[in-house]
Amino acid sequence: MSVTGTTLTPRAYLQRQSRWQPVEIVFWLATLLPFWLTPDYLVLASQIAITALFALSLDLILGYAGIVSLGHAAFFGLGAYTAGLFSKFVWGEPISGLLAGALVAGIVGYAASFIIARFRHLALIMITLGMGLLLTELANSMHWLTGGNDGLQGVKMWPIFNTFRFDLFGKTAYAYSLIVLFLVFLVARRIINSPFGLSLRGIRENPLRMPALGAPSRAHLRKIYTISAVMAGIAGALLAQTTETVSLEVLGFQRSADVLVILILGGAGRLYGGLVGAIIFLVARDQFSGNTPQFWYFWIGMLLILVVMFLPNGILGGLAKLTATWRGRFWRGKS
What span, in angstroms and rounded, lies between the C-alpha atoms of 36 and 47? Predict the structure, then answer.
C-alpha cells in the first residue's frame, strides 16, 4: 500500500489513518461556535447535525461498501416513528427513546441486509427504493397509530437527565444532537480505520475476489448495512425528539434523494464528506429558500452540477487534490 511514495503495510496504513489530525480537532471545536456566534440559528444547527449523522450512515454503505441506496430514509423514518411512539405511549425519556429507535431500525436493517447483500447496481437501487415506498405507504395506511398524512401528534420529551429541558431556541437540541453525532462519528471512525473497514473498500472495488483473500463479501455487507441502519435510526429518533413531531416526510423519497445529494456534494467515501455536505446543503437551502422561495431547488441543482463537473470526488476530494498538488510543488521546490 503506497502513500505519498512510501510503501506501507496494511497495519501501518490503518495506524496512520487512526491518528487524529489537527484539522479534525479544529473542525469539532468549530462546531461549538454557533452557541456564541449564531445563537439565533441553533435550530438550523441541530438540523445540520442530525442530517450530517444521517449522511454519515449512508456513507458507510455507499462510499465504503458500494451499496447504492435510494431508500435509506426507510431507517431514518423507522427511528423517528419509534422514538415518537415511544414518547407517546411509554415515556418521554430521550436516551431510552433514542436506543429504541436505533434498535428497531437495526432489526429491520438486519432482516433487509440478507436481500441487499445478494444484489448490486440497478437492482439494488430498485430494491431500496421499493423498501422506502413500501414503508411510506404502510405508515400512511396505519393512521390509527402514526397519524397518517396528519403526522404523529402528542410527542412530548422529558428533560435530558431530568435537567436539560428542550427549549424554543434550540440550545439543548443542538447540544444533544452534536454530542450524539460526535459519539456515533467515533464509532464510524473506528470501524473505517480497522481491518473490517479496509475489507469493505476491497469489496466495493471487487466483491468477487475478496472472499479469496479471506473477507466474506456478503457477511461483511450484511454487517455494515445493519450498522448503517442503526445510525440512520438514531438520526431519525433525534429529529423526532428535537422537533416533537413526526410526519410521513421522514420516510419519503425526497429525504433519501437529499441525503444522496449531500454525500455527493461533500465527497462519498470520506468520513467528513457527509458532515461538510450537510453544512453546505442546509445552509444553502436556508439562504436560497429565504431569497427565492419558488426557485431554491434551481440553485441547489446548479450547485450540484458545478460540483460534479469541477469536483467529481466532492468538495473534500477537490480540497485533498489541491493539497496534494501544493505539497508536491513544495517538495519539488526544496529538492
Answer: 18
* Cα gap 211→105, rounded to integer Å: 28
Distance CA 183, CA 301 (A): 32
Reported as type and span, the H/E element at residue 113 is helix 94-116
Q: Which residues contact 204 (CB under 8 A, 6 or more apart)?
A: 64, 65, 66
Beta-ladder partners of 152: 246
3-state SS, residue 7: strand
Task: State the DSSP H helix or E strand holding residue 3, giving kind and residue range, or none if neither.
Answer: strand 2-3
Q: What does pTM read for this prediction?
A: 0.92
What CA–CA distance (Å, rounded) separates 74 from 210?
A: 29
Q: Please spell the DSSP secondary structure of 137-157, one letter per residue.
A: HHHHH-HHHH-GGG-B----P
Q: Nearest to residue 223, comparing CAs of 60, 22, 24?
A: 60
Q: How far is CA 333 from the centre of its chain?
A: 41
How many residues are there in the chain? 335
| Digit-coded pLDDT (tens) for 67-99 | 988 999 999 999 999 999 999 999 889 999 999
Tens digit of each residue's pLDDT (9 = 90 or more) over 123-181:
888 999 999 999 999 999 999 899 888 889 888 899 998 889 988 888 999 999 999 99
Q: Which three cell numbers stand for residue 68?
A: 447504492
Question: Do 151 and 142 touch, CB atoms closer than 8 A?
Answer: no
Residue 238: other Cβ atoms inside 10 A: 31
Cα distance between residue 244 and residue 20, in whole Å: 36
Q: How far is CA 91 from the centre of its chain?
A: 27
Q: At 91, is the secondary structure helix, strand, or coil? A: coil
Q: What is the 3-class SS of 42-69, one letter each residue?
A: HHHHHHHHHHHHHHHHHHHHHHHCCCCC
User: How many CB atoms are closer than 10 A to CB 168?
Assistant: 7
- Rg of the chain's alpha carbons, rounded to an integer? 20
* Residue segments in the chain with a per-residue pLDDT below the cut of 50: none
